[in-house]
Amino acid sequence: MYCGATAGELVTVAEIPTGDGTGRWTSYACRPCRIGGRLVPFLAHPSGSRGGLHYWPAAVPYELVARLADLGDAPQLRPITDRLFPAVAASASRVVAGRDRGAATSAVHAAVMELRKAAVTDTDDRREPVHLFTSRLFPGGGGDDDTTAAAEWTRSTLDAHGLSAAWPVADAMITAGRTRRPWWLSLRADEDAVAIQIHRSRAHRTPRLPDPIPGLANGVRHAYSVTPVMDGLCMWASVALSTAPPPSRDEVLDTLAAASGERTRLPFAPF
């Protein structure tokens, strides 16, 4: 089966055995159809459920779906979808324990980050180079293996990439985001800014950063926000490294959509 459009290369999106078992029905789609329908290429289907049509979950934002469509058949994405699709199912299941749903949600977030990294790596050179893209899961509880380890890892990572100016904001976020449950910390940087993101369980009070942030150099600007996501909170901050202003409210919302899958009203405006 072919889509009705003829825009560019057609990619296989499904292979379904015929009723008599003698062959397969194969479905193809062009790039616009793969984007509009959020279709996963057949060669990128998770290993445990290959065949019928698969759709990128809501946690994968529209702009990332468009970037992934540029990759064509994208067999290199299968290791990521092998983790993404089971984690999405577990995070939405009512029969999975709350702690396990939280871990599954963190796994979804990590897989989306990996998809974003794969899209940036494999797309054309017109996009800004990513100098840093890394993440790590911490056990929670606030002990030496948790917030202390998170601070040491973050400080050494930022220092190694010449991004020490962002450390005070990251340190304040780690302190404000302390939780008893496992939580995810990610760092991403390009030529203009460092993005720091924490995905943690929900809190009775909205985590806030001190104002002013201790140790933050004069003239270093940042934006910070918190939004609810699946079974938790996403804390997000951007530290400007150039003369460009910090991200706007819409840019913050678009970034947070990578975790929540939809545009969400922020509880309060960025600084």
Please outline the helices and strands:
Layout (H helix, E strand, L loop, with lengths): L10 E7 L6 E6 L1 H6 L25 H8 L8 H15 L5 H25 L9 E7 L5 H17 L6 H10 L6 E7 L3 E8 L21 E8 L2 E9 L8 H12 L11
Antiparallel strand pairs: 1-2, 3-4, 4-5, 5-7, 6-7
Compute the separation of the termini in Å.
Answer: 51 Å
Order of helices and strands: EEHHHHEHHEEEEH
| Distinct helical segment count | 7
Return the domain count: 2
CATH class of the largest domain: Alpha Beta
Low-confidence stretches: 122-128, 259-271
Features:
disordered C terminus, 2 domains, alpha+beta, 271 residues, 5-stranded antiparallel beta sheet, Heat Shock Protein 90
Architecture overview:
By secondary structure, this protein is of the alpha+beta class. The protein folds into two domains: 11-102, no CATH class; 130-260, 2-Layer Sandwich (Heat Shock Protein 90). Helix content is 34%, strand content 19%. It has helices at residues 31-36, 62-69, 78-92, 98-122, 144-160, 167-176, 249-260; strands spanning 11-17, 24-29, 132-138, 183-189, 193-200, 222-229, 232-240. Strands 3-4-5-7-6 form a five-stranded antiparallel beta sheet, sandwiched between helices. Strands 1-2 form a two-stranded antiparallel sheet. A hairpin with a 6-residue loop joins strand 1 and strand 2. Helix 3 (78-92) packs antiparallel against helix 4 and helix 5 runs antiparallel to helix 6. The longest helix has 25 residues, at 98-122. The protein starts with 10 loop residues before the first strand and ends in an 11-residue tail after the last helix.
